[in-house]
Amino acid sequence: MPLQSTLQVIAADELEQTQAWAQAIPGSCWEYASLCVRARVCHVFVKAGSETWSSELAVSEGDLAYVIFTSGSTGKPKGVAVTHRSIVHLIEWVNSTYNIDHNDSLLFTTSISFDLSCYDMFGSLAAGSTVHVAPELSPKKLFQVLQKGHITFWDSAPQVLQQLEPFIGALDSLRLVFLSGDWVPLQLTQMLRRAMGDGRVVALGGATEVTVWSNFFEVGDLDPEWRSIPYGRPIWNHQYYCLDAQSAPLHVGMTGELYIGGVGVARGYVGRADLSERFLENPFHPGRVYRTGDMVRFMPLRPWGVYHNSCEVVLEFLGRKDSQVKVRGFRVELAEVELSFAAQGLDCAVLALPSACPAVLVAFAPRFWFFGSWMCCLESQNRKGTCHIFWSDSQVCSVEALPLTRSGKVDRQALEAWWAQRRTAFRAPITKQQQRVVEAHHLRLEICSEILK
């Protein structure tokens, strides 16, 4: 899979360590070669008027299908080697389970460097579906393409579709929506279900190292106690394990690290034997597992047995193992804080950032619900006893909208840069008008402080 030059995240020494190979058709070789240090370009020629490649290669299920780069939580790209068996298995599961065929049209909104694109390209074309490429990700343009192209199948990160919230009621051509790559907001799924009628909304998850998706949850009625859409259960021929630090299985309700086994487990990281140790032999089942670094727990699905009348427990995703921070002596899981606000219908991103103290929590919230909704949320959490004690020294920043990466996830690096750029020391008011503004904000902050206490 090609690397996008616009990402500019892969250092030359890291590419040299990976030693990526590029395969290209003459005429576009320069584009790929310029992105790969020490790359070997293999020319593949097509005979004029022929529908087959002139160089016929015998391909087996264990052969390499593609290498796609992922940075994960480290920020350093790693090339994941995926076999034909793994990607074909995923395509077969999706197309068979959701009856994807030549009557479907998919809107391609995902960056080609993001692993969702692997299904969008290979899976849709394997089913004979039509693939429409979105010219840009502005809400207005996306809505126009959705209507004109009679799109039936949507596949993206939740935040990309959430931009279309004002238009969701008019998306009557959609019959299937896949949401993955980030937290799936509760309210978004219900808006979609109302707009789509008999359509299906599916939340998916997994890791690039286990071929795009390896678990799913088809959204129905929401349980009032849910804080987020459940992670769900494994797809065909995959196993999920919640293990402790000694790699022992944990009981339902206990938090542990997620290990994924099954057909989708990749070969490993290309040229990175030091990191490939995350791919282990499966101690419970023939095959291999991938150690994800995700914290999860198995929880009962309420009411019991509703899910396809067979599954009584589902997986709940609790965040990354490496996303814990320390604030005022408390160990804080940032994902837990975000989920507590998401349960109140407030979409925000929470980061631990430098301030006058060593670190404070900063919540970045869209302006359209900024002050009134935030205060209502804090009051509600205070009544329920879920208002975090470490939140009292933290801050809330209003932004036009949460910035997104090209893969559709919240761009936390952009928020950090925004914070660093706008942090300034307090300057005393000079004019009477400035004094009135300061007094008004001081009064509001006092009210907020009383609520938090």
From TrEMBL:
<dbReference type="GO" id="GO:0043041">
    <property type="term" value="P:amino acid activation for nonribosomal peptide biosynthetic process"/>
</dbReference>
<keyword id="KW-0436">Ligase</keyword>
<dbReference type="InterPro" id="IPR000169">
    <property type="entry name" value="Pept_cys_AS"/>
</dbReference>
<dbReference type="InterPro" id="IPR042099">
    <property type="entry name" value="ANL_N_sf"/>
</dbReference>
<dbReference type="GO" id="GO:0031177">
    <property type="term" value="F:phosphopantetheine binding"/>
</dbReference>
<dbReference type="Pfam" id="PF00501">
    <property type="entry name" value="AMP-binding"/>
</dbReference>
<dbReference type="GO" id="GO:0016874">
    <property type="term" value="F:ligase activity"/>
</dbReference>
<dbReference type="GO" id="GO:0005737">
    <property type="term" value="C:cytoplasm"/>
</dbReference>
<dbReference type="InterPro" id="IPR045851">
    <property type="entry name" value="AMP-bd_C_sf"/>
</dbReference>
<protein>
    <recommendedName>
        <fullName>AMP-dependent synthetase/ligase domain-containing protein</fullName>
    </recommendedName>
</protein>
<dbReference type="InterPro" id="IPR020845">
    <property type="entry name" value="AMP-binding_CS"/>
</dbReference>
<dbReference type="GO" id="GO:0044550">
    <property type="term" value="P:secondary metabolite biosynthetic process"/>
</dbReference>
<dbReference type="InterPro" id="IPR000873">
    <property type="entry name" value="AMP-dep_synth/lig_dom"/>
</dbReference>
<feature type="domain" description="AMP-dependent synthetase/ligase">
    <location>
        <begin position="58"/>
        <end position="269"/>
    </location>
</feature>
